[in-house]
Specification:
With about 190 residues, the protein is an alpha/beta fold. It is built from five helices and seven strands, in the order E-H-E-E-E-H-H-H-E-H-E-E. It has a single domain, classed as Rossmann fold (3-Layer(aba) Sandwich). About 30% of the residues lie in helices and about 15% in strands. A five-stranded parallel β-sheet has the order 4-5-6-1-7, with helices on both faces. A two-stranded antiparallel sheet has the order 2-3.
Length: about 190
């Protein structure tokens, strides 16, 4: 067994953002996957609480919105078809259109994903995150493949999410600086034998 990180502790309240920093291989993605319930931790305690819902193991359905390296998009479907797959039953088509507009993809909504640039695919994944209505966003390199306007978009979306009481945990090498209460942790690489 290899220790990736140790002694990481933090607490976040409604409206707060946590930026996770560290060199490649320091454990940022591993930490985020554990927080999202996608990977199990070998040791330690993890507790989520949103409103009246509280749990220690796993993920409460609908409480966490995940944006990782693998975007999970269906390449042969259009942007709007991809979002319809992830859309909750009580959502309306207007919600999908609004999400596409917010991320700057309204004019490409009918294009198959395989024809989109990497940055457009990243924006589509951001639109899916918006539609999740999850109180906690966990984002691993959300600015990947985005230009400076894309990074400004992320800052705007994070600010709006924070103002609505949402929480976000982000691992990024980009200088993302949302206007919201933000704290930082830095993971250090463990020396290996």
């Amino acid at each position: 067994m290899v220790t990736v990180f140790a002694n990481v502790s933090f607490s976040l309240q409604s409206g707060e953002i946590l930026m996770v920093r560290g060199a490649n291989g320091s454990g940022k993605t591993s930490l985020l996957r554990i927080l999202a319930g996608l990977t199990s931790a070998y040791n330690g305690k993890l507790q989520h609480k949103f409103g009246d819902a509280s749990w220690n193991i796993g993920v409460s359905s609908g409480s966490i919105g995940w944006l990782g390296h693998k975007l999970g998009l269906k390449q042969d479907l259009s942007a709007i078809e991809n979002l319809a797959l992830w859309n909750e039953k009580d959502k309306q088509h207007e919600d999908i259109t609004t999400a596409l507009q917010k991320v700057g993809l309204l004019n490409t909504q009918q294009r198959p994903v395989y024809t989109m640039s990497a940055g457009q695919k990243q924006r589509l994944a951001l639109a899916r995150l918006l539609l999740s209505n999850s109180p906690l966003w966990i984002m691993d390199e959300p600015g990947a493949n985005l230009d400076s306007d894309g990074n400004k978009l992320i800052e705007t979306l994070l600010q709006q999410h924070s103002q609505q009481g949402g929480i976000a945990i982000i691992a990024s090498h980009d200088q993302i600086n949302p206007v919201a209460p933000t704290s930082y942790i830095k993971l250090e690489q463990f020396a290996t034998a």
